[in-house]
Structure formats: C-alpha cells, structure tokens
What we know:
This protein has 283 residues and is α/β, with parallel strands linked by helices. The chain is 46% helix and 18% strand. The protein has 3 domains: 2-10 and 195-282, 4-hydroxy-3-methylbut-2-enyl diphosphate reductase, catalytic domain (Cobalt-precorrin-4 Transmethylase, domain 1, 3-Layer(aba) Sandwich), CATH 3.40.1010; 13-98, Rossmann fold (3-Layer(aba) Sandwich), CATH 3.40.50; 100-189, 4-hydroxy-3-methylbut-2-enyl diphosphate reductase, catalytic domain (Cobalt-precorrin-4 Transmethylase, domain 1, 3-Layer(aba) Sandwich).
Amino acid sequence: MEIIVGKNAGFCFGVQRAIDAAYDLLKKDNNDLYSIGPLIHNEIVTKDLKSKGLIEINNNDEIASLKNKRVIIRTHGIEKEVYDLLKSNNNAIVDLTCPFVSKIHKLVKEYSENGFKIIVIGDKDHPEVKGIVSYAKEDIYVVINEEDIRKLKIDRNDKVFIVFQTTTNAENAQKLVDILRELFYNNKLVNTICNATQNRQDEVKILAKTCGVMLIIGSNASSNTRKLYEISKKYCQNTYLLNNIDDAKNIKIEESVKVGVSAGASTPKYLIEEILNNVRNEF
Ligand code: SF4
C-alpha cells in the first residue's frame, strides 16, 4: 500500500511553541500553572499536560478567583476583558497567543477605532473568534455563510473592514468576500488565514485529488482539522477523520489503493505515527 503523508501534517509553529513552553514551565517550577481553556484542541495532548500538573480553568467564576498565579494564555487567545481581569488580579501571565491571532486583535482594534464596521469571516462560537470580537470598540459582525451576510445591518456607504478567523476554509471565504465586496464598496480587507492553515489546505486538496483514500488525523474539536476534513471530502469521497487509534481500526482500505494523510495543526507527530503503523500492520 502506498501511503503519502503531507509535508505540513501535524503541529504548526504556534502550537509547537505553546506546547514546548507549557512543558518547560511545568518542569522548571512546582508552583501551580493554569491554562484558560484547553491549551490546544487535542484531548490526548491536554490529558498529558494535565497529568503533569497543568490546571485547566473553564468558567468565569474560576477565572475571577485566580489571583497571584501563573496563567497561560492559549494559542487562540482570550477575550480582552478576561485578559484585563487576570492582569488586575496580579497573575503572572504567560501569553502564548499565536502571533497570527495577536495580529488580528491589533488590526481589529485599530480599524474599529478609526470608524470601520468590522466583519469577521469565521465561527462566532469559536474561542479565537470570541477573542477577536472583544478587541472591537463596537460594530463587529461575524459571518460564516451567505445567509449571515444578507442579515447584516450595515449601510452600503459605511467603511467596512474584513478579516478572517485564522483557520477559515480559504475557498469558502473567497466566495463570501466576493459577496461582501459587492455589497460594501468602501471596504478594506486583510487576509488573516494563517500560513500554516493555508499550506495544509492546499496540500490536502492536491492529495485528495490523487488518492483513493484520505486520512485526516486530529481532534473533532479542532477547527483546522475539521476544515481539512471538509476540503478533503470534497475531492475524495473516502475521507476519514481519525481522532485516535481506535477510529483507525474501523476503516477498511484495499491494498492497491493510494492513501493520502494529513493532520491538523494540533495533532502531535507521535499520534500520526501510531495511527500509520496501525494502518500498515492491518492491511
Ligand atoms: S493554526 Fe495558525 S494561527 Fe493557529 S496556532 Fe497554528 S500557526 Fe497560529
């Protein structure tokens, strides 16, 4: 069986940086270390971090009660109010927000202060998008499809600034941008889909067009992994999303089929290898 693993599969630079820093902090110092929400969207990794002492905080009461602690901000970033609260409570903040996300925060703040209405193309319920929204003074809208765009209460003559969630599907985003540009002629756009996402999506598209089976390895909870799955499925019907080794056991692949493999930005290399070993041994 021929198995082709995408060059970009697995941890992106932002995730690698956050993971390295978290393990390093846990090793160096025995004092409690907290993370606001899961550090990355991969249960296998977050479980391991937990076993080594990282304490995950998930609700506002717990966040408000953190005082004089070491607190990690995850790659997606957090809402500005939460950041300010942690700071005013004298916590030692280790800000591991990915620079690509911080850049969006700055852009949104700047354009919002300059009177632009902000449109974010992305998932309004995703923590990264909630963080982005919190940096606007007012008038910020999140759209994920054409229907959302049609509901926008923005005047045609208003100044509009468009950005993207870093993991947005580039093809879908382009369709939405075309509609937005027709509706709001006074627009300014910065493509904030991160390189790591773009490279993976491009690679998956090429692999999916030429392979009989596609395996996308990563967590269902990971936005960029789900996008890879969606893109792959469009070009290769036999696309499987594998969260873990058990998922790999349930699929059937014929010996003669060429298998393409990619993995989300929060998927560790050892999980990719473990699953591929299983696939090789099974067939
Ligand atoms: S997917 Fe992109 S934005 Fe998200 S952590 Fe990785 S490099 Fe940063």
